Amino acid sequence: MIESAYIHIPFCTNICTYCDFCKMFYNKKMVNNYLLALEKEINSLYKNDILETIYIGGGTPSSFDIEDLNKLFIILRKLNKSDNIEYTIECNIENIDEEKLIFFKENGINRISIGIESFNEDILKFLGRKYTKKDIVEKMNIIKKYFDNINIDLIYAVPIQSIEILKEDLNNFIDLDIKHISTYSLIIEDNTKLKNDKIKYIDEDLDQEMYELIKETLKENNFIHYEISNFSKDTYQSKHNLNYWMNNNYYGFGLGASGFIDNKRYTNTRSINNYLLGKYILEEEYLDNEKNLENEIMLLLRTNIGLNKKELYNKYKIDIDTKYNIKEMIKDHLIEVLDNGNYIISKDKWYIENSILIYFIGGNTYGQN
Ligand SMILES: C[S@@+](CC[C@H](N)C(=O)[O-])C[C@H]1O[C@@H](n2cnc3c(N)ncnc32)[C@H](O)[C@@H]1O
Ligand code: SF4
């Protein structure tokens, strides 16, 4: 049974200086053609599963006008939805408005994710985002009128950002009184304006200082740090993302989307021409037991759920204690044992998680290499 579906909307009304996601400029005719292809793709893959989470991401789904949204949601009506579904749509400040929010509400959306990134006007300009602090406050007030389950994205490690600016940003984010914050350390991707302009990364020590500041500040403000880059109040964790991190199956529909079904990970083409011709899939990878186990461990160790020895034994017939020399890792404070017996990466080592994950992949074992 597949419980989650991701739907990719690859259109934006503005292209940011740092973004290498699968996206193009909004164009109404192209949107029409795209939605026809999306419907065909869904029809060809979807097996009538009852979905617990749907995530409409992008690109910028809120770049659609009401007519486009109507077409999209007629297609999505075919997906069976659980009564408790988490149904998220990503929106951007510059093109979300009251009419679209009412439309979302009427069409079952119950979670909104907004890329705010920063309140600082120099940073917004550097990132190529086309709104101001005043716009953020105005739009967030309207969104909060209709939705309670909201995520906001914050970017840090921007080369012109100081610790002081980040502190100000964190205070502004906290003042919005939102239930979920996702944080992103800026990646300077190929094929972006930042890369072409030869912009360099900030110093790694500063990056870590920023990460620790975010962690501490959000903790002091009652956020639960439940995944390396994600923080939520109470029970507002993203069910959709938790499904990914628990290595469960999910559909990925749309240009450049990826999915995981029956031990097969697939990635769709980023070529709009191929997609419109029905050549959806670019590559597929079958994951054998060992690869699946590695993936599952890497995903779970990103979270505060961690590894459950018994569940992993039942699923993969391995004893993780002996396979990974976990007792030694506990002794050396790399791994921590939760009250329920699960293993997580020690809370003060989340920044260096990659250097710990190497002991769970490619046959490496802690203390033996
Ligand atoms: C791809 S966007 C899609 C949603 C929406 N269009 C937006 O801009 O918020 C999702 C998140 O990824 C972040 N992102 C994209 N490229 C990034 C990069 N190179 N480094 C860090 N974060 C990035 C965006 O800032 C945004 O918060
Ligand atoms: S960050 Fe969001 S709005 Fe900016 S180009 Fe990427 S997908 Fe579009």
Number of domains: 2
User: How many helices does DSSP assign?
Assistant: 15
| Strand line-up in the sheet with most strands | 9-10-8-7-6-5-4-1-11
In the CATH hierarchy, the third-tier topology of the largest domain is known as TIM Barrel
SS elements, strand count: 16
Q: Level of helix content?
A: 25-40%
Mean pLDDT: 97
- CATH H-level homologous superfamily name of the largest domain: Aldolase class I
Strand portion: 15-25%
Task: Give the distinct bound molecules.
Answer: S-adenosylmethionine, iron/sulfur cluster
Report the biggest beta sheet as strand number plus sense, adding barrel if it closes: 9 strands, mixed
CATH class of the largest domain: Alpha Beta
Q: Architecture of the largest domain, according to CATH?
A: Alpha-Beta Barrel
Gyration radius over CA:
21 Å
Structural classification: alpha/beta
Shape: globular
Low-confidence stretches: none
Report, as a whole number of angstroms, the end-to-end distance: 40 Å
Protein traits:
nine-stranded mixed beta sheet; 22% strand; single chain; 15 helices; alpha/beta; binds iron/sulfur cluster; TIM Barrel; 369 residues; three-stranded antiparallel beta sheet
3D architecture notes:
- It contains 15 helices and 16 strands.
- The chain is an alpha/beta fold and 369 residues long.
- It folds into two domains: 4-243, Alpha-Beta Barrel (TIM Barrel); 310-369, no CATH class.
- The strands form four sheets. The protein has a nine-stranded mixed β-sheet, with helices on both faces. Strands 12-13-14 form a three-stranded antiparallel β-sheet, with no helix packed on it.
- The mean pLDDT is 97.
- Bound molecules: S-adenosylmethionine and iron/sulfur cluster.
- S-adenosylmethionine (SAM) binds next to strand 4, strand 6 and strand 7.
- Residues 18-19, 21, 57-60, 90, 92, 115, 117, 153, 155, 184, 186-187, 189 line the site of S-adenosylmethionine.
